[in-house]
Amino acid sequence: MAHSSREASAPAGFPRRGRGSSCSLASKSSRGVSSQNRGGETEMLERLLNKPKLVVLEEPKERGMRFRYECEGRSAGSILGASSTETNKSQPAIEIQGPIDHLKRVTVTVSLVTKDPPHRPHPHCLVGKDCPNSSGICVVTLNPHSNRRHSFANLGIQCVRRKELDVSLQKRRNQNIDPFQTGHSKGIEDMDMNAVRLCFQCEFEWEDGRKDCLSPMVSNPIYDKKATTTSQLKIGRFNQYRGSCTGKTEIYMLCDKVQKDDIEIIFWRGSWKASAEFAQTDVHRQIAIVFKTPPYQNQDITEEVEVRVLLRRLSDQMESESIAFTYLPHNPDPYEVNRKRKIKSDISFSEKPCVTADGAPAAEPPFHAQQPQAMMAPNERLCAGQPGASASGDLGYNEPQDSSNGTDATAILNQLLEMPVLWDMISDSSFTSSMPSSFEPGIDAGSTFANQDMNLNQNFGSYTQDFSHYSDLQFNMLVNEIQTPQSEGRDSPSGMVQVKTEDEL
After folding, report:
1. 269-273, 302-306, 358-362: lowest mean pLDDT where?
2. Nearest Cα to 47, choosing from 67, 30, 28?
3. Nearby residues of 410 by Cβ (< 8 Å), 6 or more positions away
4. What is the pLDDT of residues 436-457, one digit of tens each?
5. Residues of each domain in the chain carrying CATH 2.60.40.340
6. pLDDT digits (tens, 9 = 90+) for 15-30
7. Considering only 169-178, 287-296, 493-502, which range has the smallest mean pLDDT?
8. What is the 3-state secondary structure (H, E, C) of 405-438?
9. Where in the chain is the domain with CATH 2.60.40.10?
10. Architecture (CATH level 2) of domain 2-223
């Protein structure tokens, strides 16, 4: 009975190759030293106090590895080290530290256990070059005098289908792999199939043939990349990275796989933190979330404030890398409606139509010589565009406002003189020969135009007498008859202007 109790107290959980019994014998010999051999007792005590130890130099990388099934027909990948990067790959590593003077050989057995204590054997298997076929464990042998350190390269994790879980666990029990002596205390219903730990069991073999064991050690957890409950969180992008400090800005976010009931979005800056607003229905196919920004802590900011945004899983408090978001000062008119209305009301035209204050047409200008269009003032050019002007820019006939009170002969004559057809008549050589000699250079312009007005009244008295008694309708018909040959003359192939003489009229 005493012998069996000492075996139970010794570290257990080794394969049935005799390592477990050897470790118990080593522990028995170290405690049951004969009192007659004082030298051997001292030596054994020093060996126990200065026993070498196993240290995990490089922990496995927790996120980023995918557990693969055996039926996938390809390699299960390799467990990377925690310090591994895209350019510099590393693997989990262990080292034997302490005195190794009388140490002959070190055997390390690596198996998978559950993430949560008590660490029970896990049904998933280890595969790689140091793993015997279909064993599910990794066994390496080291010579500490030549190399104290070992890296586990090409060590992968192969997951097991649910209907094969019991078979896999029975295989571990047959191999005597139960590092923490958990036995059959619990079933597999509460096991996390998406997270495992590496368990290291170390056995020392001394030069005199004795064997010694260390307590098992576990690594950091390793999570399955493809599982949404344990995968690494990552924010892809936003549709916009700026919003009002009052919050309620709708944002579309692309991300890696997330669980709609196990995720939250955190805004933070310094000691301030706030959660975004969204429902479970706003999580689209685990890769997109539509949410509204929370209001910033200070609603009276006068300049832009940059905060950080991250994803957080509620179950294990796993967080993603954060990205920047900018809060803008509050703008009560985001669409600038008031500014556009003010601009519209302030628009004024520098050129106004030629109308009087009462809205009546401008007074008839006195008789003057016609000026070229290019020499006209801006306001006069604007007047030319009014309905009273012709399409070609020439001043047309305006009907009198009140024909019942009689027609002013002088006003009618002034309008007729501004017609191009009459100026063509005046430019005729036969007509200008009869003009008085007052149109000589150096003569005063006022007297010249006065004499011209007098001569015109004398020469065209018949026109005045004939036009004065015409009605408005008759006068318009007469004007149209005068202008019709003019347009035909301008369109003639010869390009000459045809003008009716006084006798033809």
Report:
1. 358-362
2. 30
3. 367
4. 544 444 445 445 444 555 554 5
5. 2-223
6. 433 344 445 444 444 4
7. 493-502
8. HCCCHHHHHHHHHCCHHHHHHHCCHHHHCCCCCC
9. 235-328
10. Sandwich (2.60)
Q: Which residue would you say has higher pLDDT here, 339 or 273?
A: 273
The alpha carbon dihedral of 244, 245, 251, 253 has a sign of positive
The residue with tokens 């009388």 is: 102
pLDDT, tens digit (0-9, with 9 covering 90-100), for 210-265: 888 889 999 999 988 888 777 888 999 999 999 999 999 999 999 988 999 999 99
Helix boundaries (H) for 194-347: 337-346
Task: Specify burial of residue 382 (Cβ count, 10 A radius: 0-12, 13-18, 19+).
Answer: middle
- Comparing 14 with 131, which gets the higher pLDDT? 131
Amino acid in the structure at residue 140? V
> Considering only CA atoms, which of 82, 100, 104, 102 is closest in space to residue 92?
82
pLDDT digits (tens, 9 = 90+) for 60-69: 998 888 888 8
**Partners of 434 in the beta sheet?**
none
Pick from 34, 19, 24: nearest CA to 3: 24
Cα separation, 177 vs 213, in Å, equals 14
Question: In the structure encoding, which two tokens stand for residue 174, read together?
Answer: 């047959």
Rounded distance between C-alpha atoms, residue 245 and residue 294, angstroms:
8
Q: What DSSP character marks residue 281? A: G
Do the strands 305-313 and 93-97 form a parallel or antiparallel pair, or are they unpaired?
A: unpaired
Q: Determine the Cα–Cα distance for residues 72 and 33; give it in Å rounded to an integer.
A: 56
Identify the DSSP state of 312.
E
Nearest to 395 by CA among 425, 426, 356, 364: 364
Please provide residue 344's backbone torsions phi and psi, each rounded to the nearest 5 degrees. Answer: -65, -40
- Termini Cα distance of the chain: 154
Pick the CATH number of 235-328 from 2.60.40.10, 1.20.120.1810, 2.170.130.30, 1.10.600.10: 2.60.40.10
